[in-house]
Amino acid sequence: MCAGATIAQRGNTSSDSEFGPVVTAYLGYLNNEQEVVDDRASRREITSVYYRRNSNRIHALRQMAVRLVRQTGNDYVPELEAVTSDELGTIFERPPRPVNLRQNEVVANKFRFLGQIHSGDVFYLFARLDPYEQADLMNRGGGPAASSETNAKGQRIGQSTTRARRVVPQ
Fold this sequence. Notes:
38% of the residues lie in helices and 14% in strands. By secondary structure, the chain is α+β, with helices and mostly antiparallel strands. The protein folds into 2 domains: 1-77; 78-145, no CATH class. It has a 4-stranded antiparallel beta sheet with strand order 1-4-3-2, with helices on one face.
């Protein structure tokens, strides 16, 4: 079946050696997800429409992860969501209209809109805000949009860090 070729083709879109361990692990996770979808398709457990949409979603997630890492130079990938316009209701109680979404805009105090990727369907990609970003946003008044200069925080590729020891009062 051509599923193996699809994995090889998508898996080699970028050399994993150019990324740190966190991003490499995330890309490996996406490869594993593609293998699961391929396996389910080969067993005829899913429809071809479901297969195409999920394969395209995995491809869109990979593209965004690589784009974020190359932009920031950080070995960090936020929790990403890739949804089509008809799936926006799966992550939002009151789904925004896609035409109103602006890059780096915070939506519903939960997600930052990263952009859209055309991969078969049009996928709208969001990064889930971490608890600190959410708390900061709430403290500042919880406006619908946050400043666009806020970048993902993470460790620079190739940079090691140590964590301070926890001091327990006696």
